[in-house]
Every structure is written in C-alpha cells, then in structure tokens.
Amino acid sequence: MTRRGPQAVPDLVARARAGEAAAVARLITLVEDASPLLREVMAALNPHTGHAHVLGVTGPPGVGKSTSTNALVAGMRRAGKRVGVLAIDPSSPFSGGALLGDRVRMGDHALDKDVYIRSMGARGHLGGLAWSTPQAVRVLDAAGCDVVVVETVGVGQSEVEVAGLADTTLVLLAPGMGDGIQAAKAGILEVGDLYVVNKADREGAERTRRELRTMLSLGERNEGAWRPPVLMTVASTGEGIDGLLGEVDRHAAWLEQAGELARRRTLRARREVEAIALAALRERWSGTDGGDDLVEVLAARVAAGETDPYAAADRLLDRGGD
Amino acid sequence: MTRRGPQAVPDLVARARAGEAAAVARLITLVEDASPLLREVMAALNPHTGHAHVLGVTGPPGVGKSTSTNALVAGMRRAGKRVGVLAIDPSSPFSGGALLGDRVRMGDHALDKDVYIRSMGARGHLGGLAWSTPQAVRVLDAAGCDVVVVETVGVGQSEVEVAGLADTTLVLLAPGMGDGIQAAKAGILEVGDLYVVNKADREGAERTRRELRTMLSLGERNEGAWRPPVLMTVASTGEGIDGLLGEVDRHAAWLEQAGELARRRTLRARREVEAIALAALRERWSGTDGGDDLVEVLAARVAAGETDPYAAADRLLDRGGD
Question: Collapsing DSSP states into helix, strand and coil, what is residue A84?
Fold first, then answer.
C-alpha cells in the first residue's frame, strides 16, 4: 500500500546516507514490503556498503539477548561508534513482527540519533529472512553505521542463519540451561566466534563455562584458526561487556588478517543473491507477476496423485526459462 | 558413496511397499543423500501415496515431545495401525542427524515391525527439510503406514514448517514454560490444530491450560472452523493419551468434511514441488551439475561492491533459462 512513497529513490538514499533516521526507516520498510523499488535502492546503496562490521547475537530464549545487545550498544556508543540494531524475530512469520515495540526492547537508546533500532519479522512472503535481513543490513551499512548488530531469537535453524550473515557471531548462554548435549544439539558449537555465559552471577555459571570450553576443545581446528573464547558477563549491570567488546574487535582484526572477512562476505552475498533470484522465480511461478498460478495447478495434481513432484518441478523449471 | 545400491529402483519400491523395513530405510537414505535415483523412486511411489494421515508433533524443548510421540504410537498400535515416525532435528544442519539414536528415543517400539522410526537432520545441502521431509513422508505413506508422525524439535520457524506439512498439527506445552507472551511469540498459537499441556501432574498445569484457552479464544474464527481443543496429558504414564488420539481422529474427520484436507495437501505439494525445483536450480547455478560456479563469481563481485545483488540475481536467472 505504501509501495511508492512521496520521495524519489535517489533523494531517499541521499537522506539515509546523511544519517536521517526517517529515511533509513523508510528504506527498511521497503525491504519488509518487498517493494519493487528495492532494485533501484540497492543499486544506489551498493557503492556505499562494506564498511560496517556485522555482529550476530544469538542464543536460546531466556539468556538475555536483548539486555546484552543493549549493553553492547552502550559500550559501542561510548567508543563513538554509530550502531544499527536489527532485532530479528523469525518466530512470528504470520503476524510479521515482534510483539514488543523497539522502544521497549532497547529503552536506553531510543532517543540516541546515532543508534538505529529496528525489529523485523519473517513475513513468510518471498524468501523470508534470508531475503530481507541482508538487504536491511545493507541499508544500515550504507547509512554509515560502524557496526550492525543482528539479534536473533530462537534455537536451531535461526542461529545458523544469523551465523551465515554476520562477520562475527556471538552465542549467548546462561547457567542452568540444560546439559551439554542440549547445547550440541542446538548446533551452537558450530556457529560461534565468541561464546558468552551471561547471568554469570548465578549459580552454575562457572560449570557452564567449563562444560562449554571442554566441548569447544573437542572440535578440530587448523593452525592459525580462530579459537572461540568463552567469556562471562552480567549484561544487566554491564559487567564483562567491555571485555567482550575487546574480543569482538580482536575477532574483527583476525578476520581481516586471515582473509576470512572476504570469504564470509562472499558467502553472505551468495545467499543474498540466491534468495533474490529464488524470490523472483517464485513470483514468476505463482503468477504474482501477472501470469497464472502454475504452482497451484501442479500442486493440486501432485496432491491428487496424478503426477509426481519431480515431474511437476520440471514443468515449473520450463516456465523459469520463459 | 552409496548412491547406487545393489537393487534396482522398481525392486526396492516393491519391497518397501510390501513393508520390508530395510527397503523403507534405504529409500529414506536416498532422500537424505539427495540421490539422483529419487526422481525414479518418487515416480514409482506416487500412485501409492495419499493414504497416510500426517500428524505433526511440535513444541519447545523440554515439553516431552519424544515421550508423547512414544505414547501416541503405543495407542495407535493398540488400534492396529501401522505407524511411521520421522523425528526431525533441524538444529543440527552440519552434522546431519540427532545425537541420540532412534532406538534410545523410541525404545518401546524399536522391535515392532509395524512401526518405522527414523531420525532426520537438516543436512543443509539443497533445500533442507522443506525438500527432504515431504519426500520421506511420501516413502512411509507408500509403504503402507496409516499414520506418519513428524516430530520436530525447536521453537520458531520449525514449528511453522511442521505445520506446513502435516494434516494435523499437535502443539505440546508444559506447565511453567513462561508467560503467554512467550507462547504467542513462538508463533504456536497460529499453527496448532490440537494443544496439549503435557506433564499435567505438575504444578501450574491448570493455569497453563486456562491461559492457552484464553489466548486461543482471542483469535477470530469463521463459522464451521475448527476450534483447537486444549488437552491435558501425562505422556510418561500414558494418562490422557487415548483422549488425545480421539481428538486426532475427530480432527481428521473434520478435515475431510470441511474440504480442508485437499487444501492442506495441495499446499504441502506446492512447497515440495517448489523445493525440488529450487534445489535443481541451485545445482545449475553453482555448477554442481558440471558447469562453473556462477553464484560464487557473482557473490564475490557483490561482496567487493562491484555489482549489486539484484543485478547479480538477474545474471543467475539468465542461466536458469539455459
């Protein structure tokens, strides 16, 4: 409904680059709405991206991700950095957003003009978060953020996804979250660059750290590889946050030096390009671009047992080549 | 490495249809390996599918999903039904499987020849679970299962996915899992056909049921729509399981009567066909089918700021049309 705003794209992009919060917000809304204007937006933003360090913050529910993000942002602000925060809530694909407003989540920074905060849901349309998150990161990057924090709720798949699009992935845990097998099952031992036992003033924190260290040490690493440290924080009081930020910087330096930054960013671009291409194909297949809904016709035939899914996929691919 | 087995596909399919567990297992392995033989397998299975009722079982970690599945399977077996169980673990995309063996998870039924049990991880390759799960369901369906139970670990996205491929989705909760907002955030209020408060012998069970009922009653429903009941079980003792199975049957009858079964199965087929087509395109784009890795070339250019992701996607789509 708000697909065409009052401003032309070049003007909007110029204002976003000048740090105007309303213009940044508008561009991210275009991403959320999957606006046809995005093609022009991304082409205009492109020369101005690549500066921001993307920090993924993830972990199971209840470990204090929002509080930690809040404390990290405070520390980054003290260091004079401009910060963008994307709070991703993949758990609400139908309603399309978090229940709590951005201001509630990030109360300390709601009025700071050098902090952009935005919640995004997975609206389910098109390619979901794999499609929208990198583009929103791109907007914040071009708008001059030194750091973009991508906070993801949830366990499982979403952690892997945040790891896929971050330069540095921070995995949060808290004492008493269950035994080591649970942690391993959640896949978190494979995705973290930094591990944090938050709520470190609680009973069992030291044990959780020890267990985590042991499990991490089991993984094989090549010489020169990054060894993920395990840190302790009490995000609600800010304890340990400066040390954590120091480790984030150390990891950023390692990424550059080891050539890993380019590798990760290429991987991220790969997923982004694929997601955009796949979304375009989905539109073509389902007739959203004006044709008939071929997928629906084929799906009904598969459901009725009249054709098999591979034969139906072949038909779709024929249209893909129109 | 075991892409070509000793048996030809028609023989394997015939043996799976005759209920031979080893043949069923082999076919699901072909799905997990994304074998090129699947095209032939699915064409052969297709006429024999559509019989099984697909029951999705989901809920946050710790609510007793495996215990509940175990108890449900026991009840179905008492009713003389053949049962297939797919335990999906999307949290382990890299290692490709659950840490606990199938026998440990489902100890009671490990030796029952009318129960097929299989754990599947999201191997990350191709379309992941959206690609593999429906095909594994198809194998169990064709093998004569009356019910296929798809158990999914996790919160968030994975619940939505299991809802997408089940005829009936069962959402499990337990007392004291956190307040209502948490439940709403997890998206579970939108996906369940049946809700179960498991561990109902624990303190707070009645309150959890009341809260759940209140929240469910807030959603608008048309006349004739299914109203999700909220049941109480103690899966470890079997308490409430027969009542739950009765509700599953009642929902199955409603699906037929309301025309909803065909709608859901068409939606499921739609996702399956799309996932197969997208996986084929990914192979084409990345050169897995013998060409060069065009995505990698384009991704490197995007990461270097030389081109924008939409322009890169256009290039991919050109190849899609080869």
Answer: strand
Q: How far apart are CA B251 and CA A198, in angstroms?
A: 44
| Cα gap A15→A148, rounded to integer Å | 19
Task: Note the pLDDT tens digit of each residue in B133-182.
Answer: 899 999 999 999 999 999 886 545 555 566 678 999 999 988 876 554 45
pLDDT of residue B97: 33
Written as one string, the DSSP assignment of B54-118 is EEEEE-STTS-HHHHHHHHHHHHHHTT--EEEEEEETT-TTTTS-SS-HHHHTGGGTT-TTEEEE
Chain B nearest C-alpha distance from A75 (Å) = 28
Q: Could you count the other beta carbons within 10 Å of the beta carbon of residue B297?
A: 13
Read off the pLDDT band of A189 (50, 70, 90).
Answer: confident
ipTM reported for the complex, 2 dp? 0.83
Which of B30, B39, B54, B302 to mutate to test binding with chain A, by most A CBs within 10 Å of its CB?
B302
Do the strands A83-89 and A53-58 form a parallel or antiparallel pair, or are they unpaired?
unpaired
In the predicted model, what is the mean pLDDT of chain A?
82
Could you tell me what percentage of chain B is helix, strand and coil, using 3-state DSSP and rounding each to the nearest 5?
A: 50, 15, 35
What local confidence, expressed as pLDDT, does residue B238 receive?
95
Alpha helices in chain A (DSSP H): 9-17, 21-32, 38-45, 65-78, 102-105, 129-142, 157-165, 180-185, 188-191, 205-218, 241-257, 260-286, 294-303, 309-320
Question: Given an 8 Å threshold on Cβ–Cβ distance, is A299 in contact with B273?
Answer: yes
The minimum CA-CA distance between A80 and chain B, rounded to whole Å, is 26
Residue B50 contacts residue A305 (beta carbons within 8 Å) = yes
For residue A39, the chain B residues in CB contact (below 8 A) are 310
Which regions of chain B are under pLDDT 50?
Answer: 1-3, 92-105, 124-125, 155, 180-181, 321-322
pLDDT at A96: 31
Provide the CB-side half-sphere exposure for B254 (13 A, CA): 15
Asked if B321 and A321 come within 8 Å (Cβ–Cβ), the reply is yes
Most trustworthy range by pLDDT among A110-114, A208-212, B178-182, B318-322: A208-212
Provide Rg for chain A, Cα atoms. 21
Domains recognised in chain A with CATH numbers: 49-258 (3.40.50.300), 271-320 (no CATH)
Which whole-number Å values give the CA distances from B3 to A144, B6, B26, B38, in the listed order? 50, 10, 10, 10
Residue A186: list chain B partners with CB under 8 A: 91
| Cα–Cα distance for residue pair B150/B120, rounded to 1 Å | 10
Size of interface A-B (CB pairs under 8 A): 230
Strand arrangement, sheet containing B194-197 = B115-121, B83-89, B147-152, B53-58, B168-173, B194-197, B230-232
